[in-house]
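User: Predict the full complex structure for these chains.
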Amino acid sequence: MTDTMTRIAAGLERAFAANGFAEPSVEDLRDAAGVSLRTLYKYAPSRDEMVRAALDHRHQRYMAHVFADLPQEHGAALGAIVDRIADWMAREASHGCLFHAAVAAAPRDAGLRALLARHKAEVAERAARASGLPGREVDLTLVIEGLTQSWPLHGDATAASARRLCDALRAMP
Amino acid sequence: MTDTMTRIAAGLERAFAANGFAEPSVEDLRDAAGVSLRTLYKYAPSRDEMVRAALDHRHQRYMAHVFADLPQEHGAALGAIVDRIADWMAREASHGCLFHAAVAAAPRDAGLRALLARHKAEVAERAARASGLPGREVDLTLVIEGLTQSWPLHGDATAASARRLCDALRAMP
DNA sequence: ACGCATGTAGAACGATCCCTCTACCTACGC
DNA sequence: GCGTAGGTAGAGGGATCGTTCTACATGCGT
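Assistant: Here is the predicted structure of the four-chain assembly.
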C-alpha cells in the first residue's frame, strides 16, 4: 500500500539523516524502515532506490515546512522563510542539507546530482515568488545555501545574518 | 624528490575529490597515491587517517590559493577572495567543499566535524582580517559558504552575486 | 662489503556488504 | 472454505571490504 511506502520512506530518511549515506547497511535501513528485508526490496529494489525514496520524502517535508502558509507581504515572507529554514536546521538537519550529503557520498551519480539541482531550483523558485523577487533566484540560492551550510557552525547568529542580507537583497536593484 | 608523505596526501586528496569519501576502496587509494599498500598504511595507518591526510593537504592548498598575495585595500581584497574562490571551484572542486563531503559521509565522526569547524573558522578569520571587517566572521562565512555551495548550480553567476553581497556587507554596520 | 631503512607486490584473513531465496503467517473478498 | 495479496523472519551466496603479513628489491652511509 501507499501507506507502507511512506512509512518506509520516512524511516529511510531518518536513518540517512542520522548516519549519512555511506554508513548504514541495508539491514540498518530495514530496522529504520520497520519492515522486513523482502518488503523493503519490494518498494525500493536496490540501495540506490532507498536513497531516492528518502530524498523524495525529504523534499516533500522540507517544502511543506518552509513554504506553507507564508505571510502575503514580501519582506515578511522572506524573513519567515529564513526563520523556517533556521527552525528546520535546529530540529531536523543539524548536520546540513541531506541532498548535498547524498551527492557528496556519490559525486559521480548524475541522477543524484540532477535530483539535487531540481530540489534547489524549486526552493529558489518558491522563494523568489514568495518574496516578490522574480529573476533573483541566484541571489536567493546563495543566501539560503549560506544559511543552511553555516548554521551548523554558528547557529542562530547565522539566521540573524541571513535576515540582514535578505533586507540588503531586497534593497538592491 | 618530493616528500613521500605529501605525494601520498596529494594523491589521496585527488581520489577523494573525484570519487567522494564513501566509494574509493583502500586499493583505489593506493593506486591514486602511487605507493604500495604497505607504504600507504605506514604513513596513514587506517582509512580514517587517509581521510585526515587528504583534508590536511586540501586545507593547505586552499588557504594558499585563496589568501596568498591579496591586495592591500579592503574592498579589493574581498573582491579578490570571491574571485579566487570561484576560480578554485571552477578548477578544483566542481562538486563542492571537500570538508563538507567528508562530514556528510560520516556525520557521527566528531573529529571530522571539528576539523571542518576549524577549517571554516580559519577561512572566516583570514577573510575578516583581509577585508577589514573584524567581528563579522559570521556574515563572511555565510557569503563564502553560499558561494561555495551555489557555484556547482549556477557557476559564475554565483560569483557576481557574491561580489554584490560583499559590497552590501561592507556598507552594513 | 654490509646493515638498515624504505620501498614494492600481492596473498590471505575475517568481517561485512548487497541482494536473493525459502518457508511460513495473516487478512479478506468471493 | 479457500485462494490470493501482502506481509515476516532469517539463512545464505558471492563479492568486496579494511587490514595484516610474508617475501623480495633498492638506495645509502659507513
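Chain A touches chain B through 42 residues (CB under 8 Å).
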